[in-house]
């Protein structure tokens, strides 16, 4: 059997498009170029003048064919998008953005980190529901509306000069239904004060949705996840350049060439070397998506790539008018020495000023001349660093230097391209002192080995990323059935409760102890007037801390996921009605994401999308990694718990 899909190689759909040379383009060739992501850069400098002429021909023809007028870019409320060079996709409960100890958002900490490492951010996408949605019947809108202080969080970002996107998941069709998506999304925009919408899994929004969102939030900026059709550049101010492979000689981004005010953000979420994305963004005058935690998985940027972003945005923000309105010459003529060293540049001319944005594709610093004549080295490097960038400015004789020149910081290149690994560490359970329940399942002391089954999701499992340097993960590499081995040793026997804690038992705990959670949001939300309707059903709408408090009162603790599985595989664990997932003492944190492993499965199952948490009852060997949200949002209708005790006598 031949494995024909190589995940480390760009797919044909990711590859750049050749521009036919040798004659003016035919109507069929012009229309075909509409499908490009990136126009291939010619390897021979002698071909580049004709190449640029053919690009101009295509743009003029495409504008005419599609009746382009650009009015969407004239909206003053949306003008910011043209200068939005860095946007970060951030999980609302990223530990830089939310403190689980203080139960509050910490945007000041998040922004300080972004400023130090990336030179600040122009926008953030506040990611909310996936990969948690589907655990219960909450829909994507609930995962925004139920967040206390969301509007205040957006206002804090605004006060720091950072715009805010909310996320739209069109695939969410199997959770509880409210109004239609357009009405719900319009309401979320109004309630949150967000500036834009990220269109998850979509290239574009339906025109009717665009129209309704514009009425709800004039100047709303829409950004899709993939190649935007040429005809829709008209009403989408931004788009991801996700998994766009460039040519060896850097090419031109089709959408930005078509409309210079259209902002694109390069992103390859699983790559550890972002050089090619950064070079393309720098040469095209566009931006990058800074995505360091992909759905709970740390994929942090190296010091080199972060430093390159800092250098880029220092110039891009200062010289934005030149980059948007100046005469752009891609693959501008350079000295033969620079060309031979793998150095390439775009030239931007406006009035008395000429700017070259320069990249070095090579692995050695280039120390020679880049262009003929005197220039100002904006970064004061005296070189074009290996795999790095440079910026050169020429001021016409007798002309004044641009006023923005003082805003450009002479930031150094950092050659350290090592991946900044993080390890997730486990919260260790407290020893117990109580007596197990009579029918508890005994797990013997000593070593054990387990096979754990799980579904291959973008969340990964315990350590590391599920994909490294892969392009777009696709089946059979996504959502497939997988196994991993767990091994360890129990210092003493552990007794795991045969049954889950019920509503009635939890009510007794509250009456006896007067327990009050530190964060009360959603606590026992299914009870009425402080009393459960069904005392014998498993208690739900409790989080890890609630479950820990109950078990401590019983002289026990939560079982670890391994102890739960070992007990479950004896056949001695009982399931309540309805069946609910079980919390386990498996909380981990890598400093950016907190997660736990759930066991058991539930009777609830969200249907209609592969992106949901998998529902249904599961065998004891099955685990789901759940990212922990804050503000009590971990409490839901489908997760309960059982206790365990260390047996020392």
UniProtKB/TrEMBL annotation:
Start and end residues of each Sulfatase-modifying factor enzyme-like domain: 488-572
Pfam families, per this entry?
Answer: FGE-sulfatase (PF03781)
- UniProt xrefs under InterPro entries: CTDL_fold, Sulfatase_Mod_Factor_Kinase, SUMF_dom, SUMF_sf
Q: Report the Gene3D superfamilies cross-referenced here.
A: paralog of FGE (formylglycine-generating enzyme)
Q: Which PANTHER family match?
A: FORMYLGLYCINE-GENERATING ENZYME, SULFATASE MODIFYING FACTOR 1, 2
What is the protein name stated in its UniProt record? SUMF1/EgtB/PvdO family nonheme iron enzyme
Organism name? Amycolatopsis rubida
């Amino acid at each position: 059997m031949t494995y024909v899909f190589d995940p480390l190689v760009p797919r044909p759909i990711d590859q750049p498009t050749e521009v036919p040379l040798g004659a003016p383009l035919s109507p069929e060739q012009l229309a075909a170029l509409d499908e490009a992501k990136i126009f291939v850069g010619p390897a021979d400098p002698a071909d580049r003048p004709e190449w640029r002429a053919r690009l101009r021909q295509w743009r003029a023809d495409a504008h005419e064919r599609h009746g382009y007028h650009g009015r969407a870019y004239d909206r003053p409320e949306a003008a910011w998008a043209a200068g939005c060079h860095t946007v970060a996709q951030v999980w609302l409960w990223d530990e830089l953005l939310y403190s689980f100890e203080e139960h509050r958002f910490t945007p000041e900490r998040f922004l300080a980190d972004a400023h130090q490492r990336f030179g600040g951010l122009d926008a953030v996408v506040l990611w909310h529901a996936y990969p948690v949605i589907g655990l219960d019947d909450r829909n994507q809108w609930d995962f925004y509306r139920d967040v206390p202080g969301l509007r205040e969080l957006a206002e804090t970002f605004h006060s720091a000069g950072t715009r805010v996107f909310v996320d739209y998941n069109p695939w969410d069709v199997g959770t509880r239904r409210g109004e239609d998506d357009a009405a719900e999304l319009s309401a979320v925009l109004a309630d949150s004060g967000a500036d834009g919408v990220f269109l998850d899994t979509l290239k574009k929004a339906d025109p009717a949705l665009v129209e309704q969102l514009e009425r709800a939030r004039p100047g709303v900026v829409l950004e899709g996840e993939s190649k935007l059709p040429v005809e829709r550049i008209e009403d989408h101010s931004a788009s991801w350049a996700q998994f766009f492979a460039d040519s060896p000689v850097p090419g031109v981004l089709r959408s930005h060439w078509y409309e210079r005010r259209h902002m694109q953000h390069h992103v390859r979420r699983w790559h550890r070397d972002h050089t090619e994305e950064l070079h393309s963004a720098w040469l095209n005058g566009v931006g990058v998506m800074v995505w360091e935690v992909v759905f709970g998985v740390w994929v942090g940027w190296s010091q080199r790539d972060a430093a390159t972003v800092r250098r880029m945005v220092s110039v891009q923000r200062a010289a934005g008018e030149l980059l948007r309105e100046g005469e752009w010459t891609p693959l501008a003529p350079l000295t033969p020495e620079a060309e031979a060293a793998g150095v390439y540049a775009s030239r931007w001319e406006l009035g008395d000023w000429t700017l070259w944005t320069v990249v070095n594709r090579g692995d050695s610093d280039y120390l020679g001349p880049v262009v003929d004549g005197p220039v100002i080295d904006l970064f004061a490097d005296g070189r074009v660093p290996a795999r790095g960038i440079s910026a050169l400015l020429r001021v016409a004789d007798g002309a004044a230097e641009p006023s923005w020149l003082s805003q450009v910081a002479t930031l150094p290149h950092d050659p350290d391209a090592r991946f900044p690994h993080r390890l997730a560490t486990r919260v260790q359970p407290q020893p117990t002192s109580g007596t197990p329940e009579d029918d508890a399942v005994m797990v013997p002391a000593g070593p054990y080995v387990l096979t754990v089954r799980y579904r291959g999701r973008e969340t990964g499992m315990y350590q590391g990323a599920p994909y490294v340097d892969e392009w777009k993960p696709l089946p059979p590499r996504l959502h497939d059935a997988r196994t991993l081995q767990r091994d360890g040793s129990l210092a003493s026997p552990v007794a795991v409760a045969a049954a889950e804690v019920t509503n009635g038992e939890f009510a007794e705990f509250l009456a006896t102890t007067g327990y009050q959670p530190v964060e009360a949001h959603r606590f026992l939300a299914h009870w009425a007037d402080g009393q459960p309707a069904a005392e014998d059903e498993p208690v739900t709408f409790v989080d890890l801390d609630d479950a820990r408090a109950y078990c401590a009162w019983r002289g026990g603790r939560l079982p670890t996921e391994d102890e739960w599985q070992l007990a479950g595989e004896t056949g001695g664990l009982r399931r309540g009605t309805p069946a609910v997932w079980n919390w386990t003492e498996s909380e981990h944190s890598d400093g950016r994401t907190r997660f736990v492993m759930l066991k058991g499965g539930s009777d609830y199952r969200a249907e209609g999308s592969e992106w949901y948490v998998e529902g249904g009852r599961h065998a004891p060997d099955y685990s789901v990694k759940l990212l922990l949200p804050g503000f009590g949002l971990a409490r839901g209708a489908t997760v309960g718990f059982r206790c365990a005790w260390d047996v020392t006598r």
